[in-house]
Design a protein that fits this description.
64% helix
């Protein structure tokens, strides 16, 4: 198992302990008008897992790290996360990320570290990579985990008293 897969699983397991303790009624309140509620943030993380699962597989089958982006606000709205049960969203989020971890743990070190001159991580990564600098799949996966941590921090901040 790669350390990235173990890191992802560790983040999910640790977060689920405190996420499951958040009262259902709290999860539907956005922190400010126009902001996402905890349900919508977890929904966004489901969408992120779904999109990045296919990116991490495709990255092993193509020479570049060029992937389609997605309109995160539209995905969250059209998926109706605000109206779904918190426990159901958490179960789905855990399951999607477990599949991402399975894919990640199967990637060879050579494939993880192979530099790719062609990428669009300047557009789709959370912590972007300039278009004129090479990028690796290892960086992109670590960036995915960083993005996940960022949003978990948002949920923690908006649900703590």
């Amino acid at each position: 198992m790669t350390s990235l897969a173990a890191e992802l699983r560790g983040e999910i397991d640790a977060a689920l302990r405190w996420l499951r303790a958040i009262p259902e009624e709290t999860t539907g309140r956005p922190p400010r008008p126009g902001g996402w509620s905890a349900r919508q943030i977890i929904g966004h993380l489901i969408d992120s897992a779904s999109n990045n699962h296919q990116r991490f597989v495709r990255a092993q089958l193509q020479p570049s790290l060029v992937f389609p982006g997605y309109d995160q606000d539209a995905w969250v709205e059209r998926s109706g996360y605000q109206e779904q049960r918190w426990e159901d969203l958490l179960d789905r989020w855990r399951a999607f990320n477990e599949q991402v971890a399975v894919v990640v743990e199967r990637i060879s070190q050579a494939e993880l570290r192979r530099a790719r001159a062609e990428h669009n991580l300047h557009q789709i990564a959370w912590r972007t990579v300039p278009a004129d600098q090479p990028a690796t799949l290892e960086y992109f996966i670590a960036d995915y985990i960083g993005h996940l941590r960022h949003h978990l921090g948002q949920i923690r901040a908006m649900t703590s008293h």
